[in-house]
Amino acid sequence: MGALVLAAGDVFTPPTAEAFNLPPIFGWVTKPMLLIVLSVVIILAFFLLASRKLSVVPGKRQFLVESAYDFGRNNIAREQIGAADFMRFVPLILALFSFVLVNNLFGIVPILQFPTMSHIGFPLALSVLVVYPVYHYAGIRKHGLGKYLKNQLVPPGAPKLVYLLLTPIEFFTKFVMNPITLAIRVFAAMFAGHLLIMLFGISAEYLLLHGDGVIKVVSAFSFAGALAMTFIEALIMCIQAFIFALLSANYIGAALAEDH
Amino acid sequence: MILAAEEYNPVLPHVAEIIIGLIAFLLLFWVLRKFVVPRFEKLYEERAAKIEGGIEKAEKAQAEAEQALEQYKAQLAEARTEAAKIRDDARLEAEQIKEELRVEAQEEARRIVTQGEAQLQAQRSQIVAELRAELGRNSIELASRIVGEALEDEARRRGTVDRFLAELDASGNGAAGARN
User: Fold this and answer.
1) CA A255, CA A1: separation in Å to the nearest integer?
2) To 10 degrees, the CA torsion angle through A89, A93, A99, A104?
3) How many domains does chain B have?
4) B2, B14, B50: best mutation site toward chain A, by most A Cβ within 10 Å?
5) pLDDT at A135 over 70
6) Is residue B163 in some structural domain?
7) Handedness of CA B86, B89, B91, B94 (dihedral sign)
8) Nearest by CB to B18, which of A28, A56, A125?
9) pTM of the full predicted structure?
10) What pLDDT sits at residue A7?
11) What domain range includes position B38?
12) Nearest to A28 among B16, B32, B46 (CB)
């Protein structure tokens, strides 16, 4: 990727958004598309193989898998949705969390080295086409359309006049912004993080190859920066996956709640 | 599709990526829901059942043990009263037997004493009779030796002897009466 941007030659060209415009590998298939498929294979292999022989008394390996499963089940789904309804949504939350997490982590896996979620199409697909319909549907099914809209748009306890302002804001938040911000949050984090790593990497390479004398030494700092960013990115990737699943569960929980 | 754009804009989504992302995710979701989640939930149910079953079993065992203990205690108390009763009975019976034996022995003793006395009485009578005859004969023999004459006269002789004996009898009886 660095080489791609560095094609200009002696003049340093910082990486731009163009770096994310990957050419098709074959036909119309691009790298992110392959990574998406790979992520599904990895996650399914992990869960299916691990859950093949589950015993009541877990071994070390099973304990690890159970911890991963329990994290999605208890820490995210049950916490946000509530003990009464959460079981229905466990597969969804688990899928969202593991899907976003693995695709994010692709950004720091050597060779793959591309966070799939930095292409906004993928998080948008999840938030607008999956999470958004799910939480509205769940709310309408539980309360009926009228009561659901009232729950969501007219939160009780405010003075009458405030509703003139409050209701449009609530509508805008819940029916327009939520799915978009959900997608943009993870997209932006992955995009910016990848760009930063690229910047450090490319500048280190440029300084080493084209710098004069002492300047070459500076490239070491740039490498160190790239390394540090990689660690920070690893943390951010996990946090973003967690936030994505957490907010999805939170929206579902809010839609199911009796009152706001 | 991608190359067609003159300048790449990262904020504009590609339709192909949305579609592929959605399909991939739905596939993942479907498999997780169909296979993975049920396996884990089944495991959790089994685990909960096992733990609850274990607790229930332990409680049942404890209740059974307590019941058995109660039963043993009751049986022990019963056995104790039974033993005491048997002891009392035995003591009573022994007392009774002793009393009976005592009475019997006393009776036996009395009987033996009576019998002995009767026998003694009979022997004494016999001895007295024998002695009387012996004494008569001896006296006559002695007398005839001393006197030197045979008392031929039967009537006389009998009269003398009888008189003597009567005298002897009277003196003997008097001596016996004094002894008694």
Assistant:
1) 43
2) 160
3) 1
4) B14
5) yes
6) no
7) negative
8) A125
9) 0.69
10) 44
11) 15-150
12) B16
